[in-house]
Amino acid sequence: MTNHWVDIKNADVILVMGGNSAEAHPCGFKWVVEAKAHRGAKLIVVDPRFNRTASVADLYAPIRTGTDIAFLGGVIRYLLSNDKIQHEYVKNYTDFTFIVRDDFAFSNGLYSGYDSQTRSYDKSTWEYEFDADGYVKSDPSLRHPRCVYQLLKAHYSSYTPEMVESICGTPKEKFLQVCEMLATTSSPGKAGTLLYALGWTQHSIGSQIVRTGAMVQLLLGNIGIAGGGVNALRGHSNIQGLTDLGLLSQMLPGYLTLPNESEQEYQKYASSRTLKPLRPNQLSYYQHFPALFVSLMKAWWGQAATAENDWAYSYLPKWDKPYDVLQVVELMSQGKMTGYVCQGFNLIASVPDKAKIIDGLGKLKWLVIMDPLATETSEFWKNYGPFNDVDPSSIQTEVFRLPTNCFAEENGSVVSSSRVLQWHWKGAEPPGEARSDLDIMGGIFTRIRDLYRKKGGAFPDPILNLTWPYEDPESPRPDELAREYNGWEVKAASDYDTKKLVETAGRQLSGFEQLRDDGSTASGCWIFCGAWTEEGNQMGRRDNSDPTGIGQTLGWAWAWPANRRVLYNRASCDTDGKPFDPTRKLVQWNGSAWVGDDVPDYKVDEAPSLGMGPFVLNPEGVARFFARNEMNEGPFPVHYEPIETPLGYNPLYPDHPNVTNNPVARIFPSDRKKIGNARDFPHTATTYRLTEHFHFWTKHARLNAILQPEQFVEISEELAHSIGVVSGDRVKVSSFRGHIVAVAVVTKRIRTLTIEGKHVQTVGIPLHWGFKGAAKPGYLTNTLTPSVGDGNTQTPEFKSFLVKVEKA
Ligand SMILES: Nc1nc2c(c(=O)[nH]1)N[C@H]1C(S)=C(S)[C@@H](COP(=O)(O)OP(=O)(O)OC[C@H]3O[C@@H](n4cnc5c(=O)[nH]c(N)nc54)[C@H](O)[C@@H]3O)O[C@H]1N2
Ligand SMILES: Nc1nc2c(c(=O)[nH]1)N[C@H]1C(S)=C(S)[C@@H](COP(=O)(O)OP(=O)(O)OC[C@H]3O[C@@H](n4cnc5c(=O)[nH]c(N)nc54)[C@H](O)[C@@H]3O)O[C@H]1N2
Ligand SMILES: [Mo]
């Protein structure tokens, strides 16, 4: 979230699109209810289903799954052509006036530089035009035909309300009502917020959907202000912490990136990430990249990381390809993996194309499961009748189960969607043989290190030299790890000779501005610097005072970065530093400093007259409509159909089959053979969650199993009628990958959509059932889903695929 949960109460308009927060985030949804009750805020829901959030909305608009870019592109066109944009904001705080290279091109659904063989782009033309000093050229009059504003206007000119209706199935009047309601927030005194989750991300074009939403918010001047923002409502309680700590195959902690195989030299790696300002007098925070990176390497490798060895740069793996779940399952199924450690993850339940995963797991030599429960994955080799129809005698994989505790049985921190790190304390001892994940990992690490010590190996240095300064090496404590991710002054090289981190390290740092690039500071995650200072554990603070009543509780726990609650908050003020809306003030310029109810996202003594932009991480200092070379599909999002499309063509480019779907979506050749078409599988399906269950684990708890005992699918009255089914009948739902059988719930909440003149049915499939637990055994929903991923994140396309529904 750019903003935070409590801040939602400051909004005048709330758009929930690509999420169902009343159902999946019921506690946080309380702030939507507060905004409605106390501010008269309007709630808009755009969703294929009239869901639980829609049931309390002021305005609901249906949409076909996977078509949100068409819808949002239509909103962009509406805002531009009806002059419903916040002029001062877009002109000064975005790239509106910047000029783009003249060899940048877009035609018939493709950008310049596409290679159909590799399904990727040469992005070199996706760039601004620079002057002799290396600064971006701009045209404040906005008349230059290649300024970002003009390109944006031209790009979305075909996204008319009629086109939106035809692609999305959203009636034109509904669509225009949504536009009008959103447009009210273009005035500087109004705030609109955007809440999204998987309905946007789990598509082959998901990241670009999110970007289009952000573009709408920029046009409206809604980013950086109280009651505004682009707010990803995250999933598992600590999934925000997972990405913050870089637990993705190409990431390092704090959103630093791991080198790829073309970056064998430290200088090459560092210089491409040390970003010089692209406009005069911009902060361009990543000018400090070496300080962040060197401090990380000092935290990891201590005295083995020196200026002479480029801070142990050679210890870092250099990636050849992303190792996301789709890739991992692909490698397993090709027989290229020996073993797999599955920690807090129910692979066969949560990843697409169950048959492919079972095949892959069966080719492993060993599988380690770390989980408090007996999951479907731990018993993938067992026959559970129709629900898991395998032959155990054909599977040789050795499965080890290591029972873990759960979060309530240990101390630690959890990062919420608000970026708030909140410490929690152990509530009970783990039962039976269960041990904490830290114990298990500590035990595995020390044993592997012993093996390297004894036997050497091709390159033992990264393992042998890893800093492991915990009092009990077999069992690092959460507070030791927290001090490490915060970071400390490196007193002397010899500090690392003893093993007690707490007593031997220098002073704890109080913020990332103290990090240096000369090896004299260490920090395991620069954005967390400030969480555990000399004053102690900031995450354990519990002061909920809120001086001005807008929810800025700076004394409650600790938020990254720098305890700031609203990112880009300098954008809440005009160019003179005066708040656009004095009733929802976050920060302001008092003549000599930036002060206010939030930690300024800016240099505190930087006078507004000097012209520094509020988007301080971007080298241009402003927010981007034109994404330059950041996104794999191109600088402005384009509507492409889901990989399994009920149409079979892209209504924007009907004569160009090469752009029916996202031209850079992730599809392995073996998976391409498993894509269904609308002739065999005429209905569009989507999958989602229910309040009463948490994924695949609460079905083990009897009370939850009583609340939602059995697998069901939701279908429209028209579809039910056409296949002769009434509520309570069983239906067989098939895709190209397999089938499930479940109870039909016939409902008005899912309606028949008219797309390009033809009727399209949406089938709603909750994901919670499986063959383990206290609920009635069921099929895994991911028996049906395609192994296809987003072009940037590789997130699977769980939210849009083709099925056929029949009476069972
Ligand atoms: N009770 C409970 N709460 C949970 C979870 C749980 O399992 N149980 N899981 C947690 C996790 S890990 C996550 S990631 C979050 C997920 O939170 P959400 O993303 O809110 O949850 P979902 O139910 O997957 O999907 C949200 C909505 O997206 C809609 N949708 C599907 N396709 C599209 C589309 O193309 N466009 C639009 N606009 N909408 C679409 C669906 O109809 C659904 O209403 O929930 C978290 N909260
Ligand atoms: N079709 C479809 N598929 C989806 C989705 C969808 O919307 N549609 N959503 C996707 C999303 S967003 C998510 S997040 C995934 C969820 O997929 P998973 O994360 O695989 O699902 P969970 O059931 O939450 O599995 C978490 C496991 O962690 C265990 N666990 C709990 N606490 C601890 C602990 O402290 N230590 C360890 N080691 N284990 C613990 C639980 O017992 C559980 O078995 O599913 C994805 N799959
Ligand atoms: Mo999730």
Bound molecules: ligand MGD, molybdenum atom
Shape: globular
Quickly give the structural class: alpha/beta
What's the Cα radius of gyration? 27 Å
**The CATH class of the domain at 6-235:** Alpha Beta
* Strand runs, count: 31
Query: Quick one: CATH superfamily of the domain at 6-235?
Result: Dimethylsulfoxide Reductase, domain 2
Main beta-sheet strand count, sense and barrel state: 6 strands, mixed
- Kindly report the spatial arrangement of strands forming the biggest sheet: 25-27-26-31-24-30
CATH architecture of the domain at 6-235: 3-Layer(aba) Sandwich
Output the number of helix runs: 22
Tell me the CATH topology of the domain at 6-235: Dimethylsulfoxide Reductase, domain 2
Strand content: 5-15%
Ends apart, CA distance between termini: 43 Å
What quaternary form is this? single chain
Helix content: 10-25%
- Mean pLDDT, to the nearest integer, reads 96
List low-confidence stretches.
493-504
GO biological process, one term: anaerobic respiration
Domain Molybdopterin oxidoreductase: 2-377
Cofactor: [4Fe-4S] cluster
InterPro entries: Asp_de-COase-like_dom_sf, Formate-DH-alph_fdnG, MoPterin_dinucl-bd_dom, Mopterin_OxRdtase
